[in-house]
Structure formats: C-alpha cells, structure tokens
Amino acid sequence: ETGVTQTPRHLVMGMTNKKSLKCEQHLGHNAMYWYKQSAKKPLELMFVYSLEERVENNSVPSRFSPECPNSSHLFLHLHTLQPEDSALYLCASSQDLGGGTDTQYFGPGTRLTVL
Amino acid sequence: GQNIDQPTEMTATEGAIVQINCTYQTSGFNGLFWYQQHAGEAPTFLSYNVLDGLEEKGRFSSFLSRSKGYSYLLLKELQMKDSASYLCAVRDGNYQLIWGAGTKLIIKP
Among candidates B40, B20, B4, which has minimal Cα distance to A106? Predict the structure, then answer.
C-alpha cells in the first residue's frame, strides 16, 4: 500500500465512450502526475499538477483531459480514444515538484483496453 | 536526446546475486532512482543515488558513477518474490524524471 489509490483497476471501453479515471493520494503531497505505461516502453509522463495547477502537458492528445479539483484528487477524462491508447495508466504523487530527494509514490494503475 | 538504457530481461537463481545495469545520457543530473514493479502492481521506490558510490539497504544495493553515466542495482540472496521489473529513472537538469523501459527479472528455483 503506497498511499495512492486508483479506480477503476480495469476498464474496457469502445472508441466512442466517455470514461474517467480517478486517483486519490493520502500522503499530504502537493504534486500529482499521470503516466502512461506501455509494454516494454519507458513510462511516459502525461500531466503534472502542483497545488492543483497544471504545470506540464507533454503534447498529449486532447482526447485525454485531466482535472485536479484539490491536492488529494486527480482525474483523467477519456473520450473518443484509439486502440493504441490501450495501456496501464499510472497516477503518482510527490511532496513537491522534483527537488532534492523528492520521491514519487505510485498507485496500482488502471489497465485500459480500447476496442 | 535523453536516454536511459537497461537490459530488457534477466534470469537468476534463487539464493544467488544479480546485478542490473543502467546507463544514461541526460541533460544535467540531479539524482538516479530505482523502482521495483511487480506485475499488475504499482512501482515502489527502492533507492536514490545522487553522489558517486554504493548505497546499501539490506539485500539491495545501488551504485552510481556520474562520470560514466552508469548505475547498477545489486540484489543479494535472491528470493522468488524478487521476480519483478526494475525501473531506472534519472532526474535531469530541469528536474524532470527520465525513465528506462525496465528490466524484467525472472528468478528460478
């Protein structure tokens, strides 16, 4: 148990569906992250939030839309996805944005399959 | 460009020692992390190195040589539960985390 939870753990959706992934951290951290993990590829950073402000958007297609209503919760809204978007989506949090030994703590991920 | 290289897969025997290497080329350096990820689970933090040398934590040790752009994770007295993927990540000069693709470690009895 890392203190970061994600729901759902598994999601199957069609290309025309709209769904949302949820992440919650119980660590009192100020920064939260969305990553995409595909088989045999490095983690791809998608979005970074610090104190509910988006500080990074790594050229992610607009069919992915993040939302951070407060420092403990992070959402990823999905719509009109493509089959190549099938992957494990990981949420992480850290005390602050990358200073010193600041370590990221990960949730278990949502395994997304797009049909 | 920035790059992290680590072997895709390694196999070792229960009770033995294994060394997982990581080489990196990044714009600046502000520390190197190792994470363990069991199949279907969250990556969990193992170690952090920012100065050259060896950091030991029980059965796991991590080594860093900044001049060579090189690190390794050493696992001793291997147990079946050590079967997992091991991720190397470097914090670059802009404090961005650059990730390797991970090394899948298979432990055989």
Answer: B40
Could you tell me the two tokens for A90?
């990981």
Report which of A106, A103, A68 is spatially closest to residue A89, judged by C-alpha positions: A106
Chain A CB contacts of B100 under 8 Å are: 42
Q: Are A72 and A25 in contact (CB under 8 A)?
A: yes
Structure confidence by residue, pLDDT tens digits, B67-82: 999 999 999 999 999 9
Q: Does A108 contact B41 at a Cβ distance shorter than 8 Å?
A: yes
pLDDT tens digits, one per residue of A49-80: 988 888 877 789 999 999 999 999 999 999 99
Q: What's the token pair of residue B60? A: 């796991």
Residues of A in contact with B102 (CB under 8 A): 40, 42
Rounded CA-CA distance A34/A45 in Å is: 6
